[in-house]
Write a structure and sequence with these properties.
This protein is α+β, with helices and mostly antiparallel strands. The chain has four helices and nine strands, in the order H-H-H-E-E-E-H-E-E-E-E-E-E. The protein has two domains: 62 residues, no CATH class; 131 residues, 3-layer Sandwich (Rieske Iron-sulfur Protein), CATH 2.102.10.10. The protein binds FE2/S2 (inorganic) cluster.
Length: 216
């Protein structure tokens, strides 16, 4: 049955199916909404009925639920502190003499750091003129000419090439030699012969001090 003792909407019609107590409560809530929240909703006016209030309440509760659900999800997507620590690796290169190399592990991968001699830099720059399988200038592969930083994984099938130790075979180009299938890399880490299709990859890195490299 349609009641007529409820509150009136702004267009003068009666609210449906509301007792006096309900109508009073709706008016009270409407006042609250009007004064606290409605300014942000622009054209929304006083006189909304219970349905609108319930809709807003449902939306608000839904957002609260979604928020409670999303927050732990987003939190779980943030890297843990130990993962963040693994994301970058700082290497003090001051003890590495020209002609020496070190291998560090970054994100589970071997990273070759070679302190190139003057001769190795000259050889790499001369290699710029050659016909390269994966052409790139040596200057585009280094931050500083004397320091070469490479991911030490052969781009053929993923072996770790030899050449880090002075006693290792380094191939015809003086860089690294992959004994798995014979790929040879030059002193810029560029592929010169063999089945590997790409140069040794350069990881993201920067010098955070004169003798400190941050990888990652
Ligand atoms: S994995 Fe290096 S040449 Fe095949």
């Amino acid at each position: 049955m349609k009641r007529t003792d409820g509150p009136h909407s702004s267009d003068g019609t009666s609210e449906e199916h509301l007792s006096s107590a309900e109508a009073h409560e709706v008016e009270r809530v409407q006042e609250l909404l009007d004064t606290r929240f409605m300014a942000d909703l622009g054209p929304v006016k006083k006189g909304w009925g219970r349905r609108q209030f319930l809709n807003i309440s449902t939306i608000a509760v839904s957002f609260a639920g979604i928020n409670m659900f999303i927050w732990p999800f987003v939190e779980s997507m943030n890297p843990a502190a130990d993962v963040e620590a693994m994301a970058s690796t700082d290497v003090d290169v001051s003890p590495i003499e020209p002609g020496q190399s070190v291998t560090v592990v970054w994100r589970g991968k071997p990273v070759f750091i070679r302190h190139r001699t003057e001769e190795e830099i000259v050889a790499a720059r001369q290699g710029d003129e050659d016909e390269l399988p994966d052409p790139v200038l040596d200057s585009e592969r280094v931050e500083k000419p004397e320091w070469l930083v490479l991911i030490g994984i052969c781009t053929h099938l993923g072996c770790v090439p030899r050449g880090q130790r002075s006693t290792d075979p380094r191939g015809d180009y003086g860089g690294w030699f992959c004994s798995c299938h014979g790929a040879q890399y030059d002193t810029s880490g560029r592929i010169r012969t063999g089945p590997a299709p790409k140069n040794l990859e350069i990881p993201p890195y920067s010098f955070v001090a004169d003798d400190l490299i941050r990888i990652g």
